[in-house]
Automatic annotation (TrEMBL):
The keyword Lipoprotein does not apply. This is D-ribose pyranase. Pfam families: RbsD_FucU. It comes from the Bacteria. One of its GO terms (molecular function) is D-ribose pyranase activity. The keyword Isomerase applies. The gene is rbsD. It comes from Kocuria salsicia. Keywords: Carbohydrate metabolism, Cytoplasm, Isomerase. Its EC number is 5.4.99.62. Transmembrane segments: none annotated. It catalyses: beta-D-ribopyranose = beta-D-ribofuranose. It is an enzyme of class 5 (isomerase).
Length: 127
């Protein structure tokens, strides 16, 4: 049994399959998701798990070289959720961010109910 890190076996497996430049989304409970095997749905009830908890776990395991967020998040509570990310962060419209879901290798749905609490993370390499 794992001592630490991501215990959800499906999420752990999917993260281990990512390569350089692959997109991983962490999204709120309201994001319209494609019917796809790229989705790992962690949402239990409204607010559980939080975006922050999932974001911390995923970014703790994943090398991130860039991120994309909705420009509409600026000035909203959601923009504080990814504060401190140490990579370039691009802003696009919320509609453009949703359109990017089709290119995702992994989409992780949280129980977060904060508007615009969605981010696309581009995998980097740790060497």
């Amino acid at each position: 049994m794992l001592k630490r890190g991501i215990l959800n076996s499906e999420l752990n497996r999917r993260l281990s399959l990512l390569g350089h430049t692959d997109l991983t989304f962490i999204v709120d409970a309201g994001m319209p998701l494609p019917v796809s095997d790229t989705v790992v749905d962690l949402a239990l009830v409204a607010g559980v798990p939080t975006f922050s908890d999932v974001y911390a776990a995923v970014t703790g395991a994943l090398e991130v070289e860039g991120a994309t967020v909705a420009s509409e998040a600026k000035g909203h509570e959601a923009s504080q959720l990814w504060a401190g990310l140490e990579c370039p962060v691009q802003e696009v419209s919320h509609e453009a961010l949703k359109a990017m879901l089709g290119r995702a290798k992994l989409i992780v749905r949280t129980g977060e109910c904060t508007p615009y609490a969605n981010i696309a993370l581009r995998s980097g390499v740790p060497f």
